[in-house]
Amino acid sequence: MKRVLSIILGGGAGTRLYPLTKYRAKPAVSLAGMYRLIDIPVSNCLNSDILKIYVLTQFNSASLNRHISKAYNFSTFSDGFVEVLAAQQTPDSPSWFEGTADAVRKYMWMFEEADVDEFIILSGDHLYRMDYADYIHKHRESGADVTLSVVPIGYKTASSFGLMKVDDNNRITEFSEKPKGDALKIMEVDTQQLGLSAEEAKEKPFIASMGIYVFKKQVLIDLLNKYPDQTDFGHQIIPSSAKDYDVQAYLFNGYWEDIGTIEAFYEANIALTKQPDPAFSFFKEDSPIYTRSRYLPPSKILDCHITESIISEGCILKKCRINKSVIGLRQRIHRNCEIDSSLIIGCDYYEQMDESGEFPSGDKIPMGIGEGSVIKRAIIDKNARIGKNVKIINKDNIQEAERESEGFYIRSGIVVVIKNAVIPDGTVI
Questions:
Q1: What does the pLDDT read at residue 260?
Q2: First-to-last C-alpha distance (Å) of the chain
Q3: Helices (DSSP H) in 182-237: which residue ranges?
Q4: By three-state DSSP, how is residue 142 classified?
Q5: Contact predicate 374/381, CB 8 Å
Q6: Which residues form the Nucleotidyl transferase domain (predicted)?
Q7: N or C terminus: which one in the chain shows less Cβ crowding within 10 Å?
Q8: Residue 4: closest CA among 56, 73, 68, 80
Q9: Mind listing the pLDDT tens digit for each residue in 290-342?
């Protein structure tokens, strides 16, 4: 795998994940209480012995830079690296990144110099575990110019993805980007040809692109030069390449989730708490997910009732009830609180308080969840200050709302309290 260069697409403004992307790039959004989204593709690369990794990003990249610099340091005797490449204006290219392909094109002058045979293009907002080495070996064995990783899916989500058809040799013959109605029906195929059982093929009659591509080095260079006005891989470059190049499909049968929306992000995090067998597990010794070492103390739990939940490092929990929730780093939850089906992302630092968790003066709401508060089906972003007897329960069952001045949004019925927000005592949301 020394002949492979990984390019991770950090995404644009992350509007689908807003307000979690209000202060950070999409790959820097927290995952499972202690990881970041970027840790998934980077860890997959490291576990596959791909050690040359670039991350392309454009918006709010400060926290992403900080995380990568502290998490991924290679020996001076290794040629491995994980490096962020932010959008920049130059005399030859005065505009910002205009799409996934355009982002790669603008740094192709650097990628061309790499002594590699293939580029693997990855996304920064998916949750999965994949052996890229097997993927690349299949690409080499087939002699393909481009290989797409694909997954079989059902009707419920099919119209949200790029769909395709393949021939008996796994060569991709037809593309359709996010089809609906009759156009969706046309893309239905017999996925038994990919190795699914008859029952599975009936449930999942579509072949969807995962947004993961392997290109021969020169093929990618030629395609980006040949179609200078095409700015997106999924919509433009990949369909165009099928006309003149051998574009193959690589079937991925494991767990894979696009977590680029608030609802998908929330559901994927809560699913991690499922017992005994969550769809995705971080407990895999042979393929660990790496992240930054923080050297925090173990969590302190005082007379709490906790069921099917994840508690991260450095937390202090007192006489509270927690069910099917993820509690992030350094979180304080006080007496008589009830947390249900929620993601509490945690805090960046500890505040100086007395042992009770209160400020000595009592004139400021501390970071964490105040005494007697109830939080259900919500996401509480970092450093939020939730006062006493607050109820975040979406009492009116509102599906969409923007209340930034009050410190929260509602997306798909999920209340999202923004980073650094202050929710006063007794507030009901």
A1: 84
A2: 51
A3: 182-186, 198-203, 217-226
A4: helix
A5: no
A6: 6-274
A7: N
A8: 80
A9: 999 999 999 999 999 999 999 999 999 999 999 999 999 999 999 999 999 99
Q: Which two tokens stand for residue 166?
A: 């393949």
pLDDT for 73 beyond 80:
yes
- Residue written as tokens 């798909």? 412
Residue 132 zone, left/alpha/beta (φ > 0; ψ -120 to 50; rest): alpha
Amino acid at 18: Y
- Domains of the chain (ranges, CATH numbers): 4-271 (3.90.550.10), 300-423 (2.160.10.10)
Cα separation, 294 vs 171, whole angstroms: 46
Residue 251: how many CB atoms within 10 A of its CB?
17
pTM of the model: 0.92
Burial (0-12, 13-18, 19+ Cβ within 10 Å), 258: buried
Distance (Å) of CA 335 to CA 78, 297, 340, 412: 50, 21, 15, 30
Q: What is the rounded CA–CA span in Å between residue 9 and residue 6? A: 10
Largest Cα separation within the chain, whole Å, is: 73
- Structure-token match 């608030």, residue found: 262
Alpha-carbon gap, residue 302 to 86, rounded angstroms: 44
What is the β-pairing status of strands 332-333 and 316-318? parallel
Which runs of E-coded beta strand occur in 70-205? 81-86, 118-123, 126-128, 146-153, 162-166, 172-177
